[in-house]
Each structure stands twice: as structure tokens, then as C-alpha cells.
Design brief:
Rossmann fold, 10 strands, eight-stranded mixed beta sheet, two-stranded antiparallel ribbon, 280 residues, single chain, alpha/beta, 10 helices
Length: 280
């Protein structure tokens, strides 16, 4: 096999992870490259970064792809592990990258409460609408009526709009794009990296091998679908009435103190009270 030469190999990408571990047409490569470009423009390296992922196709973006400190943990448990890392060393940039089955279904409770706490981590949700790695089973984000291996006659359940849900919490930043909107995605990554508190970015991703196959759509058709069926949040009067469109853009952008600052205040208060007690 011909040796692949690229300036990112050995800097952002592990030499053994190239060529890509993903299926042809998978959106994970688009997401990874957009994130690397954002980091490269702001930091110039993965120094001081720790990436955490659970189980699933999207979890392979940081591990084994990224040439960085990574933790590949249990299914659905990426966020509590990331919280432990951040509390142990608040100076680290802690990023969670995982899929809809991992973060919303198995780990939904952790996601919700990390947003409630405004925990100082960046969470990137790669949403391909199914449990892709294990066989295209229905997930909490599968569209109503869509075919999966566990709903062969159509999904009877309403999907969860996780961005609308988290927008009602204390999260500082909530956004959604698709892999078609790659320049907006990179801009959003840069914007989120500049902030503290809980930052959540959902990326609707192409999965021709599993999701596309079940819907009889190839990679090009999936990207065309994202292009034609997405609508920017500033273009709608009522975000709850999108007529089946994918609502994209920044849902929430706040500048509230993150969990680390709030915890530091409590710690300082506790130390002060302890010292007064010891003096007495």
C-alpha cells in the first residue's frame, strides 16, 4: 500500500488510522476534518485536549483517529467520564464525540444533567438516526415512519429533538448543522471552543451503509436531502412549525458562568467557613 503523506498525520491524525476507518460516504470524516481545521486555526495543536467517546461509529472519530489523549469508555458513559477529567484538571479542553445511540439513548440522563449543570465540556453529537454500528436499529432520533431493521414497516415513535430539549436547560451553547453545511460547522466549532460552560453541537451525518441503505439512498442523495430539507432557524417564525424540515443553526448562545466557576465559589466558601471554625 502506498504511504499516505499529509501534514495532519502525526500532528492531528494517528499514522495507523489513515486511511480512514469509516465506511465510504460516512460523514464522520467531514466532521473530523471540520473540527481539526477549527482547532488548527485557534490552537495549532491538540495539546491540552482530552477526547472522550462511548461506543459506536462516531466514537471512532477521536479514538483511534485523533493523535491526542483519548478515552474510549463504556456505552453511554462518555459524559460522566469527561466530567471526571474536567474536575481533575479544569485547565484541559475536554471534548466528547459520540453518536445518537450512545449520547441520547444509553447516556441521555448524563447528557441532560451535564447541560443542567452547565458543565465546562464540549459535546459533539453525531446523529445518523440509527444504531449504525450494531445493525441499523431504531434510535431516539429516528424520524417518524422511517424504516430500520427493528421497525421494518416504519417507526411509530416521534423522534426526540435534542437541541430543543437542551435549549431549555442551562447550557451556554446549543447548535445543529448537517455534514452538508461544512463551513457553518467549522465556524460553530471555533465559536464553541471560545466559550465556557456546556456547549452542545449536533451534526446530522450521512450513513449510506446503514441508514441510507434502509431508505434506499446513496451518499449523494443523502447530502442532497440535507441540502434541500434543512432550514435555518432565523428563517422560521415558529421553530416548532418547520413542516418536516431539519432546523439548523445556533439555538442558544449564552455567557453564563460554567460549572467549574460555580464549584470554585462553593469550595472557597467551604474553606473560609472551615478556617473560621478552626480559629474558634
Amino acid at each position: 500500500m502506498k504511504k499516505i503523506e499529509h501534514p495532519w498525520i502525526g500532528k492531528y491524525l494517528r499514522p495507523g488510522a489513515v486511511p480512514s476507518p469509516f465506511c465510504p460516504g460516512c460523514g464522520n470524516g467531514i466532521i473530523a476534518s471540520a473540527f481539526i481545521r477549527a482547532v488548527d486555526k485557534k490552537y495549532g495543536s491538540f495539546d491540552n485536549f482530552v477526547f472522550v467517546s462511548g461506543i459506536g461509529c462516531a466514537a471512532w472519530i477521536p479514538s483511534p483517529l485523533f493523535y491526542a489523549d483519548t478515552i474510549h469508555t463504556l456505552h453511554g458513559r462518555a459524559i460522566p467520564v469527561a466530567m471526571g477529567v474536567k474536575l481533575a484538571n479544569p485547565k484541559l479542553n475536554v471534548v466528547v464525540i459520540s453518536g445518537d445511540g450512545d449520547l441520547i439513548s444509553i447516556g441521555g440522563n448524563h447528557l441532560l444533567h451535564a447541560a443542567r449543570r452547565n458543565l465546562d465540556i464540549l459535546v459533539i453529537l453525531v446523529n445518523n438516526f440509527v444504531y449504525a454500528m450494531t445493525g441499523a436499529q431504531v434510535s431516539p432520533t429516528t424520524p417518524l415512519g422511517a424504516r430500520t431493521t427493528t421497525t421494518p414497516y416504519g417507526n411509530p415513535e416521534q423522534p426526540l429533538d435534542v437541541c430543543k430539549l437542551l435549549a431549555q436547560t442551562n447550557a451556554n451553547y446549543v447548535a445543529r448543522w448537517t455534514v452538508y453545511h461544512v463551513f457553518d460547522l467549522e465556524k460553530t466549532f471555533r465559536e464553541a471552543l471560545d466559550m465556557e460552560g456546556f456547549r452542545f453541537i449536533e451534526v446530522i451525518s450521512s450513513c449510506p451503509t446503514r441508514w441510507g441503505h434502509m431508505q434506499k439512498m446513496n451518499t449523494i442523495q443523502l447530502l442532497e436531502y440535507f441540502k434541500e430539507n434543512s432550514i435555518r432557524i432565523e428563517q422560521v417564525k415558529d421553530p416548532n412549525d418547520t413542516q418536516g424540515k431539519i432546523l439548523i443553526g445556533v439555538f442558544v448562545k449564552r455567557d453564563n458562568p460554567g460549572f467549574i466557576k460555580q464549584l470554585s465559589k462553593v469550595r472557597e466558601k467551604a474553606i473560609e467557613l472551615w478556617r473560621k471554625k478552626m480559629v474558634k
